[in-house]
Specification:
- Chain A: Its main location: cytoplasm.
- Chain A: GO terms for molecular function: carboxylic ester hydrolase activity; S-formylglutathione hydrolase activity.
- Chain A: It catalyses: S-formylglutathione + H2O = formate + glutathione + H(+).
- The complex is a heterodimer of chains A (about 280) and B (about 675).
- By secondary structure, chain A is of the alpha/beta class.
- Helix content of chain A is about 35%, strand content about 25%.
- Chain A is built from 10 helices and 9 strands.
- Chain A has a 9-stranded mixed sheet with strand order 1-2-3-5-4-6-7-8-9, with helices on both faces.
- In chain A, α2 packs parallel to α10.
- Chain A is globular and about 50 Å long.
- Chain B is an alpha+beta fold and about 675 residues long.
- Chain B is built from 7 helices and 33 strands.
- In chain B, a hairpin with a 4-residue loop joins β26 and β27.
- Chain B is flat and about 175 Å long.
- The chains are: A alpha/beta (about 280), B alpha+beta (about 675).
- Chains A and B meet through α9, β9 and α10 of A and β28 and β31 of B.
C-alpha cells in the first residue's frame, strides 16, 4: 500500500513523521504519525500504538505529549493514528464532538450510515499494523497499546479482545465502562444499534470480567481533578472491581491535582513508556 | 687411609713392568702410568723435607694435580708395553736370541715357547705373550682403579687438612690472644705491686729517718744543755769569789745532779732494719694458674624475636655468644609478663638447660608476652645474665560473627570477635575466590592493618568468596579463622533484633518475624532505647554502601504490614512512614477491600491494586534516589518513591495486626526493576 510522507521533523535524535495512505477498512485517506527512534536506523524496534481521545487527530499526541524523548531512549516506535475516518461525508458525522468525526470509539460500526467507514477497530488492530510492519523497521512480534480517554478505552478493549497480541497496555483517564456512561451509550447506540449485547464486545469492564488469556499488566493514570471523572464518564471503579474479581493485575493511580488535558499526559507519559519498554525490550 | 699401603702395592706393579730391569732401586721411576709418582712423593712423609707446604708461615693452599685421563693411560700402557720387547703375535721365537714369545704366569717372566717342555717353566702355566699382555693389562687397570680411589681419598683428606689447618690457625690465634692478655694482666698486676711495695718502702724510710732525725735533734739539744751546764759549772768553778760560788754552786750542782739522773736516751728510736714485706703474690699465682684455664664466658646476647617464628603456644627463642667463648651449656630463663605490674615480681621464672643457641618454649598462652634471659656455663663458671628480651606468642584466631555480616553485589561487611582476651595490634582479612571447580580456591586479596573488628570489602558481583580473618600482634599473625562464605548475588542482611518492638518476635533463622498478640501489659514489655515503642517494627542491618540493593518480603494476604526503609535514627515512637525519616508500602485491610499506601511523612498517593502481592520486591537505588516496590510474582511495578537519601537507610518492617512477614535475602535484582 502506498504511503506518502506528509511531514518529517528530527526530534530527540530520531524522526517524527506523518504519513498518509488509502485505508481499505475506512475507505478514505488516513493520516498517522510515527516516531522513529535512533535505534530504528540500524535495527528493528518494537511498536507502541497510541490511541488518542475525542476530537483529536494524529497531531495532538505528537505535539503535546512529549513522548519522543522517552521513546528515543528506550528505542520504541510510536504510531499515533487519527481517531476516525475523515472526509467520508457521512451524514451527521459533524454534528457532535463526541460522536462521528473525531469520535470513532474504536469499534466496527454495524449500523448505517456508519458501517461502511467507521471500522476503526479493524483499522487499528489489523490494517495499520500490517501497513506499519511492511513499511518500517519493526519487530512484528512486539507491540503494545496505550491511549487517552476514548483512546484509553480503545487500548483496553484491543488488549482484552486480543489476548497475547499486545505485550503491554496502559491508559490515561480511560473510559472504562462505556455501556454505563453517557458518552458510551451515545456512541454505541449510534454505531452498534440498540441491542446492548452487541455493546459488551467493546466494553473494557465487561471484557475484563470474561477475560482469559496471558496475564496482563495494566497501568492506568487518572487525574483526580478530571471533570469527566466527576461527571461519571470514566467509571474506573467499575473496571477495578472487575479486574480485582478476575485477578487481572492493574495498578491504578489517582493523581492529585491533574485534569483531563494533555498536560496530564505529558506529566506521566515517561512512566508509561517505561512500563511498555519493560515488556517490549524484555 | 694408609699411605704406605698403597706404596707397597705400587711396588708390585713396578716389578711386573720392570722385571728385566735390574736397576733394583727403591725409589720410583717416573712412569707415565699415572701421575701417582708425583702424588706419592708429595704425600709421603719424608724426613725433614717437604713440610714446606705445611708451614704456618705460608698461606699457600694445597693443590694437587688431577689424575691423568684414561686415554693417556691407555697409550701410556701401550707405550709401557711397547717399550719392552714384544713380538708381533704369531711369530714364534726359535732361539734364545730371539725375543721371547710366551710368558710364564707363575714366574712372571717372558720366555721362549720351545723352552716350555723342558725349561725351568716346565710345570708352570705358560701363556702366549698376547694373552699375558691382556692379563697384565687387566691387573694394571684394576690396580690403577684402586689407585684412583686412593687419590680421591687423599684429595678429600687433603682438603680436610686444609680446613683443619685453618681451624688450628684460628684456635692458635685465639689462644695467642688469650695468652697475651693474661700475661699482660699478670705483668700489670706485678708492676702495680712493685710500685706499691716500693712506695711503701720509701715511706718507711722516711718515717725512720724522721724519727732518727728527731732523735738527733733531741740529742743535740741535750748536748747543748749539757754543754751549757758544763760551761756554767766551769765558769763557776773558776770564780774567785767564794761567796757567790758557794751561793750558786748548790743550785748548779742540783741541776747537774738532776740532769745526770736523767738517763740519756741512747737507744735508737727506730731499728735500722727494714721490715721484709712479705708480698702477697697469691692472686698473681692464681692468675698464672688460670692462664691456661678457659675463661668463664661473657654474657650472651638475646636475639630479638624473628618474625613468624612464634606460634599460638610456642616461641622460638634465639641468642648468640658475645665472643668466641667456649660454652658447655646455656640456661634459659623465662617468665610471663602480666598486665598487672604488681604481680610481675612475684611470678617465678622457669629455667631450662639447653645446648644449642636456640630453644622452642612450648605450652604457652596465646597473645601473651614473655621475658627471656640466658646464662652460659663452661668448666670455669657461669656468665652473667644476658639482657632480658621480650617475646610474644601469636594471638588466637578471631571468630567471624555470621549474624552480623551483610553483603551486596559490590561489597561485603564482615564483623568478628577478637578471639583474644587481651587486645591485639590489628587484624588481617584474607579473601579467596571460589572457582567453578570444587576445591579450587586461593587467596586473592589480603587487607592488613584493620584496627577494629569489622571490615568493608569491595567485591566483584556474582562471585563466591571465602573470607578469613587473622589477628596480628608483634609475635606475628594468628591462624586463619573459620571461613565465612560470601556470595555476591543480591543483597544479604539480618534483622537488628535490638530494634524490634517487644511484641515482635523473630524466628530462629532470623528471617521471619511475628506479631503475636500476647496481650502483654505495657508495663511488662521490655523497651530499650533502640527498640520501637509504638509501631511493632524492626530494622534490618543493610550494608552501608551507596549502590543498588534488592530484597523481597513474603507476606500473607491478611496481614497488615509496612515494608520499606528508614534512617537509622528514625524515631522509635513513630509509625513507619509517618515521619520524614521513613518510606514504606503499607497494606491495610478494610472490611470491603485491600488498601495499599505508599507512605512518607504521613502522605500517600492514591493507588489501587487489583492483585494482592504475596511477594514484594523492594529495590533501593541510592544514586538515583529511588525506592521501588514490585509484585515479584507478577513482575509488576507497584510504586516508586523519588527521594534523595541523605544518609544510609535501613530496611524496615512492621506488622499492624497479628501476622507474619518473611524476609527473602540474597536474590539477584530482576531485570524489570530497571524500568522504574
Amino acid at each position: 500500500m502506498a504511503l506518502s510522507q506528509v511531514s518529517s521533523n528530527k526530534c530527540s535524535g530520531g524522526y517524527q513523521k506523518v504519513f498518509e495512505h488509502d485505508s481499505s477498512e475506512l475507505k478514505c485517506k488516513m493520516k498517522f504519525a510515527i516516531f522513529l527512534p535512533p535505534k530504528a536506523e540500524t535495527s528493528k524496534c518494537p511498536v507502541l500504538y497510541w490511541l488518542s481521545g475525542l476530537t483529536c487527530t494524529e497531531q495532538n499526541f505528537i505535539t503535546k505529549a512529549g513522548s519522543q524523548q522517552a521513546a528515543s531512549e528506550h528505542g520504541l516506535i510510536i504510531v499515533a493514528p487519527d481517531t476516525s475516518p475523515r472526509g467520508c461525508n457521512v451524514e451527521g458525522e459533524e454534528e457532535s464532538w463526541d460522536f462521528g468525526t473525531g469520535a470513532g470509539f474504536y469499534v466496527n460500526a454495524t449500523q448505517d450510515p456508519w458501517k461502511t467507514n467507521y471500522r476503526m477497530y479493524s483499522y487499528i488492530t489489523e490494517e495499520l499494523p500490517r501497513l506499519v510492519n511492511s513499511n518500517f523497521p519493526t519487530d512484528p512480534e512486539r507491540m503494545s497499546v496505550s491511549g487517552h480517554s476514548m483512546g484509553g478505552h480503545g487500548a483496553l478493549i484491543c488488549a482484552l479482545k486480543n489476548p497475547g497480541k499486545y505485550k503491554s497496555v496502559s491508559a490515561f483517564a480511560p473510559i472504562c465502562n462505556p455501556m454505563q456512561c453517557a458518552w458510551g451509550q451515545k456512541a454505541f447506540s449510534g454505531y452498534l444499534g440498540e441491542d446492548k449485547s452487541t455493546w459488551e464486545a467493546y466494553d473494557a469492564t465487561v471484557l475484563a470480567a470474561s477475560y482469559s488469556g496471558p496475564e496482563l499488566d495494566i497501568l492506568i493514570d487518572q487525574g483526580r481533578d478530571d471533570q469527566f471523572l466527576s461527571a461519571s464518564q470514566l467509571l474506573p471503579d467499575n473496571l477495578i472491581a472487575a479486574c480485582s474479581e478476575k485477578k487481572i493485575p492493574v495498578v491504578f493511580r489517582l493523581q492529585q491535582g491533574y485534569d483531563h488535558s494533555y498536560y496530564f499526559i505529558f506529566s506521566f507519559i515517561n512512566e508509561h513508556i517505561k512500563h511498555h519498554a519493560k515488556y517490549l525490550n524484555a | 687411609m694408609d699411605v704406605y699401603e698403597g706404596r707397597g702395592r705400587l711396588d708390585v706393579i713396578a716389578e711386573e713392568v720392570n722385571a728385566s730391569d735390574d736397576e733394583g732401586h727403591q725409589a720410583w721411576r717416573s712412569r707415565p702410568l699415572v701421575d701417582i709418582d708425583g702424588v706419592e712423593n708429595r704425600a709421603r712423609v719424608q724426613p725433614g723435607s717437604s713440610f714446606q707446604r705445611f708451614s704456618v708461615g705460608t698461606d699457600e693452599s694445597l693443590h694437587f694435580d688431577p689424575c691423568m685421563s684414561e686415554e693417556d693411560e691407555e697409550s701410556a700402557d701401550g707405550g709401557v708395553f711397547a717399550d719392552s720387547e714384544g713380538l708381533v703375535d704369531g711369530k714364534r721365537a726359535l732361539t734364545e736370541s730371539d725375543p721371547p714369545d710366551v710368558f710364564c704366569a707363575d714366574c712372571q717372566t717372558p720366555t721362549h715357547a720351545f723352552q716350555k717342555s723342558f725349561g725351568p717353566h716346565k710345570s708352570h702355566r705358560v701363556i702366549l705373550m698376547s694373552a699375558a699382555m691382556q692379563e697384565t693389562k687387566k691387573n694394571v687397570s684394576k690396580t690403577k682403579g684402586k689407585l684412583e680411589e686412593k687419590i680421591t681419598q687423599m684429595e678429600n683428606f687433603a682438603s680436610n687438612l686444609e680446613e683443619i689447618f685453618i681451624t688450628v690457625e684460628d684456635n692458635f690465634g685465639r689462644q695467642e690472644q688469650n695468652l697475651e692478655q693474661h700475661y699482660n694482666d699478670v705483668l700489670q698486676t706485678l708492676s702495680q705491686r712493685y710500685e706499691e711495695s716500693a712506695s711503701a718502702l720509701e715511706n718507711e724510710k722516711k718515717v725512720k729517718l724522721e724519727s732518727l732525725y728527731s732523735q738527733l735533734i733531741c740529742c743535740g739539744k741535750m748536748m747543748d744543755t749539757t754543754k751549757e751546764l758544763i760551761e756554767v759549772a766551769q765558769k763557776l768553778y773558776r770564780t774567785e769569789n767564794k761567796c757567790s760560788f758557794l751561793r750558786r754552786v748548790m743550785a748548779i750542782m742540783k741541776r747537774i745532779e738532776e740532769f745526770t739522773k736523767e738517763e740519756p736516751e741512747l737507744k735508737l728510736a727506730t731499728s735500722l732494719e727494714f721490715e721484709t714485706l712479705t708480698a702477697d703474690f697469691s692472686d698473681i699465682k692464681h692468675m698464672m694458674d688460670s692462664i691456661n684455664i678457659v675463661p668463664a664466658p661473657s654474657a650472651p646476647v638475646m636475639n630479638p624475636q624473628i618474625p613468624n617464628s612464634a606460634s599460638l603456644t610456642s616461641l622460638r627463642v634465639c641468642w648468640s655468644l658475645f665472643s668466641d667463648d667456649t660454652v658447655e651449656y646455656y640456661e634459659l630463663y623465662s617468665r610471663p609478663i602480666s598486665e598487672d605490674m604488681s604481680v610481675e615480681s612475684g611470678l617465678e621464672a622457669s629455667m631450662v638447660k639447653v645446648k644449642e643457641t636456640h630453644y622452642t618454649v612450648t605450652e604457652l598462652v596465646p597473645n601473651a608476652q614473655y621475658e627471656f634471659w640466658v646464662t652460659a656455663t663452661n668448666t670455669t663458671g657461669i656468665s652473667p645474665s644476658s639482657e632480658k628480651a621480650v617475646y610474644m606468642t601469636v594471638p588466637a584466631p578471631p571468630i567471624i560473627k555470621p549474624q552480623e555480616c551483610t553483603s551486596c553485589p559490590d561489597a561485603a561487611l564482615i564483623r568478628w570477635d577478637s578471639g583474644n582476651t587481651n587486645p591485639v595490634d590489628s587484624y588481617t582479612v584474607e579473601l579467596a575466590e571460589i572457582g567453578p571447580e570444587v576445591g579450587e580456591s586461593s587467596i586473592t586479596e589480603s587487607i592488613v592493618a584493620i584496627p577494629t573488628c569489622e571490615c568493608l570489602i569491595q567485591l566483584q558481583p556474582g562471585t563466591r568468596y571465602l573470607v578469613y580473618v587473622r589477628a596480628v600482634n608483634i609475635g606475628g599473625p594468628s591462624e586463619r579463622s573459620q571461613p565465612f562464605t560470601v556470595v555476591t548475588i543480591g543483597t544479604f542482611f539480618h534483622l537488628l533484633e535490638d530494634t524490634a518492638h517487644p511484641c515482635l518476635s523473630i524466628s530462629e533463622d532470623g528471617f521471619t518475624m511475628f506479631y503475636t498478640d500476647d496481650e502483654l501489659p505495657l508495663s511488662e514489655m521490655a523497651f530499650t532505647d533502640e527498640s520501637f515503642a509504638r509501631c511493632v517494627a524492626v530494622l534490618g542491618d543493610l550494608i552501608p554502601i551507596r549502590s543498588k540493593h534488592y530484597w523481597e518480603v513474603e507476606v500473607d494476604p491478611n496481614t497488615e504490614y509496612r515494608i520499606g526503609v528508614a534512617y537509622e535514627d528514625t524515631q522509635r515512637n513513630a509509625y513507619l512512614g509517618g515521619n520524614n525519616a521513613s518510606w514504606c508500602m503499607r497494606h491495610v485491610l478494610t472490611p470491603s477491600r485491600h488498601k495499599y499506601e505508599f507512605l512518607h511523612n504521613g502522605w500517600t498517593p492514591d493507588i489501587r491494586i487489583t492483585r494482592h502481592p504475596l511477594r514484594i520486591g523492594v529495590a533501593l537505588d541510592y544514586d538515583h534516589g529511588k525506592l521501588s516496590f514490585f509484585n515479584a510474582d507478577l513482575e509488576q511495578h507497584l510504586y516508586t518513591f523519588h527521594c534523595q537519601f541523605l544518609h544510609f537507610v535501613h530496611p524496615c518492617f512492621a506488622l499492624d495486626n497479628p501476622g507474619a512477614l518473611t524476609l527473602v535475602n540474597g536474590t539477584e535484582a530482576p531485570n524489570y526493576t530497571k524500568f522504574t
